[in-house]
Amino acid sequence: MTVRPATQEDWPSVKKLLRFTFSELRDTCGSDDIFDVASHVVSRGIDTGEAVFVAEDQMGELGGYVAWVGKIPGMPDDVAFGVGTYVLPKHRGNGLSERLRDAAIARCRELGYRRVRGEASNKNTAGIASCEKLGFQVVGVVVEKAL
């Protein structure tokens, strides 16, 4: 798999991968409203050259994506927020998510971000472990109650 910056031509496939992220982690990703916001943010990130990367096989099929973008309301200017990382099940277990995140980290540095931040379900132990391999630290817990 080749890791490269995402383009608007990739957007339909990236959106499908983003939907997979939300369906697999439904208990923590929330509603369709949140999916719509995430979709907008990722599409904007592609347009503005943020840290949005895809993994593409030799046939042109996308096997994963990562999207870390800045200028999120309520976030400090020097922080990029991880909107999502997803790798299709058939491509898992070979370090692809780490390669995607490495590319995103390098791009965030180029853009002048000093930190990257994301959220992960406590049930997503593989995702958390992947982030920890890259030097991420768990710094808190989000608590929520549906009303």
Q: What is the CATH C-level name?
A: Alpha Beta
Instruction: Name the CATH architecture.
Output: 3-Layer(aba) Sandwich
User: How many helical stretches?
Assistant: 5
CATH topology name, in short, is Aminopeptidase
- The number of E-state strands comes to 5
Order of helices and strands: EHHHEEEHEH
In angstroms, what separates the terminal alpha carbons? 43 Å
Name the helicity range. Answer: 40-55%
Radius of gyration, taken over Cα atoms and rounded to an integer in Å: 14 Å
Notes on the protein architecture:
- By secondary structure, the protein is of the alpha+beta class.
- It has one domain (2-133): 3-Layer(aba) Sandwich (Aminopeptidase), CATH 3.40.630.
- It is built from five helices and five strands.
- It has helices at 11-24, 26-29, 32-48, 96-110, 125-133, and strands at 2-5, 51-56, 62-69, 79-87, 115-118.
- Strands 1-2-3-4-5 form a five-stranded mixed β-sheet, sandwiched between helices.
- Helix 1 (11-24) packs antiparallel against helix 3.
- The protein is globular and about 40 Å long.
- The N and C termini lie far apart (43 Å).
- 30% of the residues are buried.
Topology:
Layout: E1 2-5, H1 11-24, H2 26-29, H3 32-48, E2 51-56, E3 62-69, E4 79-87, H4 96-110, E5 115-118, H5 125-133
Parallel strand pairs: 4-5
Antiparallel strand pairs: 1-2, 2-3, 3-4
Which features characterize this protein?
147 residues; Aminopeptidase; alpha+beta; 5-stranded mixed beta sheet; 21% strand
